[in-house]
Structure formats: C-alpha cells, structure tokens
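Checklist before submission:
- one chain only
- standard amino acids only
- sequence pasted in full

Submission:
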Amino acid sequence: MPLSPAQSAAVASVTLDEPWSLIERFTTLKREHPDDVATAAGEIVDRLTRLGVPVEVHRPTLFLSLPGRASVRAGAQEYRAKPMAMSVPFPGGITAPLAYVPARYARNADEMFTKGFVSDTEVDLRGKIVLSEGFGMPGKVSYFEQRGAIGMIAVNPGHNPHWGICTTVWGTPDLRDLPRKPKIAVVAVNNPDGTALIELAKAGGSATLTSEVTEGWWESPIPVVTIPGTEEPEKYVLLHGHYDSWDYGIGDNAVGDATLLEIARVLWQHRGSLKRSVKIAWWPGHSTGRYAGSTWFADAFAVDLYEHCIAQVNCDSPGCRWATEYKDISWMDETEAFCQSVIRDITGQESKGERPHQAGDYSFNNIGISSFFMLLSTMKDSHREELGYYAVGGCGANIAWHTEEDLIHIADREILLKDIKIYLASVMGVANATIAPFNFRQTLRTFSATLDTYQQGVEGIFDFAPARSAIAELDASLDALGVHASTLAARSVTDPGVRRVNRALRRLARLLVPVNYTRGPEFFHDPAETTPALPDLAPALQAPSMAPGELGFLRTHLMRGQNRLVAALRDARHTVDEAMA
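Returned file contents:
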C-alpha cells in the first residue's frame, strides 16, 4: 500500500542535521563504562529537550559486566586478547594445558549464537583452556564449560579480536538464571595469534590466560519519549535501540541512536497526525548486560506492554557503509507484507526477511508482541566476498563491528537518511492503521510448513494431526475476520468494531508469538540461544538418531508441546470469533 499523506509529510521532514550531529558527538565518547553511558544519556536528553521533545528518564540499577585488560602468554610470547563480558576473571592469571577443538566460522547470526559447527573430538577438556575458531558466544561457551574446560580462547576470524558477552542469561539474572551464569574465563584473540596458539595446542603446550572483568550493579539511565496519539493514545508502538556500545561504536549503534533522535523530532513535529502513541526508548546495558536495559523495561512495564503495545520495532546498525541491500531482515511472519511494502515505498527495492534471532533487544517475546526489524540495510554478499569479510552481527556487515575500528567512516549519510525514513514510515504506518496491518494467516502458513518438516522426523512415531486441525480452524476464522475488517476500513480507530478487531489481533500475538519463539513462561526471559520454530516440537528432528528406548520420552515431550500449541490456537480462534460477534 502507498504511504499515506501523513506518512509522506513526515518522511519529507527528515534531515540529517540532528542525527549527524549526535553521531559526531559520539565519536568523542566511548560508551562502555556506566559513567560514560550516563554522559551519553545526558547528550540524548539535552538534545531532545533543546528540540522541545518531552523525555522521561528511568534510572534502574542493572547488573553489568565490564571487561578490562586480558592477555595470553605462552613462554616468552604474549598475545593480545579481549575478555568477554560475564566471563570469570583471572586477574592474576591461570596456567593450564591448551586443547584445540576445531570449529567452522559462523556463516550467519543464527550460527553465531549456537555452539557452532564444533568438531566433537574425544579430547578431554577437563581442567584445560580450550581453543576454538569463532566468537566467544554463549552457546559455545556453555558447551565447553559443560565439558569441563576452565577457560576458552575464541580465535576470531580477522585481524582484530572482537568484544562481546558470553552469557546465555538474558538481562539481569533472576534466581532461575543464576545457575547458567558462566563459570569459565573467556577471551578473544585475532586470527594470526590464534593460529599460532592452535599450533602450540597441537604440540601439547600450555598457556597462561589473564583477564580482568568487573561485575556489579550500576544505575543506568533509560531515556523514553512518548508521543501521544490523538485518537487512541493508550495504545502504542515501541521503537527502541541501544546507546551503550563497545568503544565508540558508531555503526553499532550511534547510527541507531541518531535514527531514534530524528524520528522523535519529526514525530513530535507531526504529532497532530498521529492516531496512536509512539514510545521511543534508548537502552543501556545491551553490550555489558546482555540486553539488561530493554529487559528491565519489559519487566517494569510488563502489564502495560501486554495490554497496550501493538508492536515493537528494534533499531540497530542502520545507515552503515556499503549497506545497499535489504535482506536477512528480522520480522515476524505476520508483519512481513507490511514491512516489505514500506521498504518498497521508500526505496523502490524489494526486501527479504528471516525469522528473528534470539538476540538484539528482542526482550518482548515472552510477553507476546508482534515484532519487526533489528538490523535493516546490509552489504551485498558479492561485495562481502570481494572484501574477504566474514559474518558479523551488525554494522551493515562491516567487520569493524565490536572493535576499535567502528568509527565514523562506518556511517554513510545517504544510506542513513534512507533508513531513517523506513523506520519512521513503518512506525507511523502501524500507529495510524485503522486495523493493525498484520496478517496472522502468514504465521499459520509458516506453522504448517514447520510441522511438515517435524513430521518427517517422527513419521510412524508421533502425529501432529491435532495441531494441523487447530491451524485449519483458526485460518478459516482469520479469513472471515479479514472480510469483516475490510468493512471497517473507513471508520475511526475509536469505533467499537475497530477496537474489537484490533484487540483480537493483539491477543493473537500474545498467544502465537510465545509458542513460536519461547520455551519459558510469560514475563520471564528465554536464554540467549537460537530458538527453533515451534520450539516445543523441534525435538522431533532428533528422532532418527535416538535409541528405541528413548522414543517414549520423545513422544511424551511432543504430546505436551502439541497441547501447548493447540490450546493457543484454539484460544486464538475463540478470540477471533468473538471479535466478529
């Protein structure tokens, strides 16, 4: 659908004056330590205030982990290293035998958050420092910890080691999470140094790993702008991104902070044409607390989000150098057609998406909120190959990501301007739509395709027929809802019939998002590990490799998982039917 006159007017108001000024300021301000993060928050607040945009600042106390210095010494040779946040510090050093476990470098973000393609050798890792290719990401760290390693050296693929965080715990830990807090030292080294250490490990050598990591509780400001809608102000779209970074972090995520600032300015200027509200939030604790800022907000305002949030939109690493394509974009199935239409309207380009990763600041899945975007524009694969770049988790695919080279040359003015317009038009489009522009029939099509895949693994062992029947019944109801909604398109967003349909669509998200993206209960947070589609049913793929005596346990698991799915689908159908009554 084409942009509305209100969207077009707002998009035409976008300039780079304010956003580029903030980017330039952030090139002088590292944003890792809580003191520097507080200074950065002050910059954002001061600029909003000067622009006349009201801003509220929350000041939660978050549990953070601040990496300091690190090194790996082998004989007379000392290698540069970076400790991973949330790893165990060894400031006095720990000496142990080296063990090499080969792994393939991640080809995409999903692989980065798993243990990766690790060769399951018979090497005894107990009491050893393990060397393995890749990043010090949580899945791999947890795997090596379980095998008894006391330390890990992640051999990064390039000339710079990358900062990162190695815990699977999402946000500040609760009592359920604490046992999963890492118990080993983890550092990253660059590829040449890692290659030398691998050779040493193969020769039976030892090394001394030294790392400094400071953990504790810090007050962490969260600026939030609320631009009230004129017709249904209690309902809102949440647009957000992190403002803490590793080092100066221009591509990740000063460009995103600048995008949020400009959208706040433009939407405040055009607030009279906004039907529902938009909240814009800047998060601390993303880098040093595994999304601690957005997690705190999800916790502190959980019930409000549950009752009133229409969609959440994440803004991370827009407007980066050479990022001319729109592919591999995170969006939930129900939002796909809407997102593609906005990108097409702004850029004239087609776009492709993917299932959102259990990463970024997607801290709202357990509440059940329809979501889109995380990373947006990215580099062409052919350009990456020409440059010899490997997969990273941001910066438009520039390998300066999470390194000291992520400076202002990573930002691109023309691409940033385009990406700001995409974010603005999409947020405004959802806030102003008479009926929320989300198609849950597409979600059901993906559910069906997922069940087809899982059924192949358990053919003759388990049957997903009850789930298929529930999907078909809900799909029929959604077809009727679409016809009904089309008769309401010309009405006000406050019309009782319109409100009933939108309430039903929000309820669909509360029911279907959790069964597709989470294993844990509502209002808690799943681990920062890759979550497969319909995760309670994903163990079906393990059936071919299971012993006959284990299949009964698998059937029990799948029965419980199917019960959860069917109950959600039936509740969704009742919700839809009631909206048309």
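Reviewer check: The chain has three domains: 5-60+220-432, 65-218, 440-579.
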